[in-house]
Every structure is written in C-alpha cells, then in structure tokens.
Amino acid sequence: MCLGIPGRVVETFIEHDVMMGKVDFGGVFKQVCLNLTPDAEVGKYVIVHVGFALQVIDESEAEKVFEFLQHMDDLQELRAGEEDANVEGAP
C-alpha cells in the first residue's frame, strides 16, 4: 500500500536547481523534494510520498493524519535506519 505522510516544512533550499526542504515528521527529519508544491514554505504542512511533497495541507488535517498513523503504529517506516530499542537483541 502506498501512503503519503504529513510533515511540517522547517527549512527550504535549492539543490541542483531543485526546490528542496527539510521536513519534520513528528521528530524525524528528512530531505524532501518540494518542486511539485511551489507554495510550500517554512511552517506549512505537506503530504510526502517517496521523498516528494505532493500537496500542501493545513495543520489541523496534518494532525488528524498523524494521530491516525500513531494509532495504527505506521510511523516505523519513517524511522528506517534508526535503531529500534524495543526489538529484542537489537544492537
């Protein structure tokens, strides 16, 4: 299943002539391409899928989605590459 995750833009910058941003996904920060959402700016929320912001949404909608995802425990994909302290035998 493909899933778009909401995140808050905390920084924008140009990299190789492409609008990029640092996006906060509830404490997990990722670089995201903002080229498809030219109205995305610091403080706004975007829906991100595979590293691309697809749509700007308002804060209340983003919070609803985050609450749902937390309830469903689907945020683990965002933490890929981080150590999972809850897994027995994890390094």
UniProtKB/TrEMBL annotation:
Pfam families attached to this UniProt entry: HupF_HypC
Gene3D superfamilies: 2.30.30.140
Record-linked InterPro entries: Hydgase_assmbl_chp_CS, Hydrogenase_HupF/HypC
Family affiliation: Belongs to the HupF/HypC family.
Protein name stated in the entry: Hydrogenase maturation factor HypC
Species whose genome carries this gene: Novipirellula caenicola
